[in-house]
Amino acid sequence: MRKFISLILILYFTTVFAEDKLGNITVSELLDEARTSIKRAYEVKADKVAKYEFFRAKSYYELAQEETSKLNLDVGKAAALRSIEWSIRAISKAIAGGK
Q1: Domain extents for the chain?
Q2: N or C: which terminal CB in the chain sees fewer CB atoms within 10 Å?
Q3: CB count in 10 Å sphere of residue 16
Q4: What predicted TM-score, i.e. pTM, was given to this entire model?
Q5: What angle do CA 53, 61, 48 make, to 5 degrees?
Q6: Rounded Cα–Cα distance for residues 42 and 48 (Å)
Q7: What is the CA 91 to chain-centroid distance, rounded?
Q8: What is the spatial distance between Cα 89 and Cα 99, in angstroms, rounded to a whole number?
């Protein structure tokens, strides 16, 4: 339980600080982090317990991929950050038992 709480805090602070320094972070790094966040949410069964948050995270990830492929890098970065944010929410809700 403590590992998951630590993970959530790390992901949250990474996201918060990344917003200030987006110029230093590449889109591919954000996409990797978003994919990892979704994978972690899936591992805690967020796709069953926190369906809305989990699928919102996946939707933003897919949007980030699509926009990045069209070379809309700023939109891709923003969507990847939103994906990470929704993954964190899904993980939190899954750990809390759906509350």
Answers
A1: 2-95
A2: N
A3: 11
A4: 0.76
A5: 30
A6: 9
A7: 10
A8: 11
72 dihedral zone (left: phi>0; alpha: psi -120 to 50; beta): beta
Both tokens assigned to 73: 């890098």
Alpha-carbon span 48 to 40, nearest angstrom = 13
| CA dist., res. 26 & res. 39, Å (int) | 20
Q: What is the DSSP string of 15-52?
A: HHHHHHTGGGS-HHHHHHHHHHHHHHHHHTTHHHHSHH
Q: Which two tokens stand for residue 87?
A: 């993954």
User: What are the tens digits of pLDDT across the range 42-73?
Assistant: 999 999 999 999 999 999 999 999 999 999 99
Indicate the pLDDT class of residue 8, thresholds 50, 70 and 90. low
**Model confidence pLDDT, tens digit, residues 77-89:** 999 999 999 999 9
Question: Which among 92, 95, 88 has a CA at the least distance from the CA of 37?
Answer: 88
